[in-house]
Amino acid sequence: MRGDDSGPEPGAPEEPGAPEEPGAPEEPGAPDVSGVDHEFLALERELAVFLRRARASSGEMAREVHPELEPAAYGLLVRLEAAGRQRATELAAYFGVGKATMSRQLHSLENLGLVAREPDPADGRAWLVHLTDDGLARFRSVRDARRGRYVRKLAGWDRAEVAELARLLHQLNARAES
């Protein structure tokens, strides 16, 4: 893994649309004579770069919320801000982790003062987890700064292009969940 983001991943084309290999298919979507589907290869490469940068960014944002916040726990803040009060079992199911893992992450967030628990009025045996006022303020500050970076990075894009990218990513995410 490279430490900078100055260029494409090794083996990736230098610029969008650059030829990747000789013998590329003439017909879009058709595999070449070696059976390589270049559109899906390009998609795989770009998603790998995107995911690597997203993981690094998540770690940076977690540290901005609180220096001791683990990068994996940042997603819990995102979910709690979006969905509101949740049971730990609901959060565990949403993230596809076990109850013990979720309990450890929530305990850590509680110790940092970012989340709190309260009895579930629908079931006195259960607890609801929510962001504290401080947790919400810290999270929103970091999220808003990140959104500002997106606005600056995509300043040259037409709003319709940004909307189309969001629509396509939503479509990809929705299909991954089904």
Task: Pick out its properties.
178 residues; mainly alpha
Shape: globular
pLDDT averaged residue by residue? 84
Largest sheet: 3 strands, antiparallel
Q: Number of helical segments?
A: 6
- What is the percent of helical residues? 55-70%
- Which structural class matches the secondary elements? mainly alpha
Task: Tell me the fraction of residues in β-strands, as a range.
Answer: 5-15%
- The Cα radius of gyration reads 21 Å
Return residue spans where pLDDT drops below 50 for at least 5 consecutive residues. Answer: 1-25
Layout of helices and strands:
Elements: H1 38-65, H2 71-83, E1 86-87, H3 88-95, H4 99-111, E2 115-120, E3 123-131, H5 133-153, H6 159-177
Helix pairs in contact: 1-2, 3-4
Can you walk through the features of this model?
- The chain contains 6 helices and 3 strands.
- The longest helix has 28 residues.
- The radius of gyration is 21 Å and the shape is globular.
- The N terminus is likely disordered.
Question: What's the short story on this structure?
Answer:
The chain is mainly alpha-helical and 178 residues long.
